[in-house]
Predict the 3D structure of the following.
Amino acid sequence: MEIPYTSEPRQDTGLFNAKVGIWLFLASEVMLFGALFSTYILLRVGAEPGDWPHGLLNIPLGMTNTIVLIVSSITVVMAWASLKMKNFARFKMFQSITLICAVMFLGIKSYEYHDKFSHYEVLLNDGKVVDGHLVGNGKEEITIHGHYVDKAEAAKVTHAWQEREIKHEEITIKRSDIKYMESYGPWHSTYMAIYFTLTGLHALHVIGGALVIGFLWGPGSKMWKTDPERFTNRIEVSGLFWHFVDLVWIFLFPVLYLL
């Protein structure tokens, strides 16, 4: 049985079926991310003055990822436009750039995640707090590349934005002197939990979108020879999803990195 309206538009909506479907799906995605953003805003506004971390994230890396996704959105449009102009080779070229941008984005985000999981706050038995990156992990002692901080200040604000002014050193700590130590993973604070939830969910969308684009770039591109109009529509639909992924990050970057 032939599926209707895969290429030609429906009379009631003026759109082909896949385009109607992707818009309905994106509406549900807006509600999902809207709820998460609303949660962040309520927690942020409700926090005590000075208790919400600032400067914990790497702004240059976040800006780089923003530029990478914007470039990928441009290449997605150019790939679709190339098919409209019956230029399959240019389509392949532009979608290759899109996939490279997706890999770059995920690579940078992986580096950021690794940085957080290797960044520790160590509370000593004498009440001192050491904040920095774990560079040595022995049975009897650990080594932190960081600095001593005031415990009260450590509970309120993190220090990445101050690192230009703070002198870091290799600090060796005996395990017997440690009261507790905790990395800056999602369990560290409410802010980190929100950061990993929002960026992790967004990264899953990037992976999903890249897989679809990769399939249409590779095995799925055979449809171009049998039904070019339907194939072009598929590229348009995948592009709409990719634009949404880009738009979500454009909101995530200032909310998490700058505010």
User: Anything to note?
Assistant: The chain has seven helices and five strands.
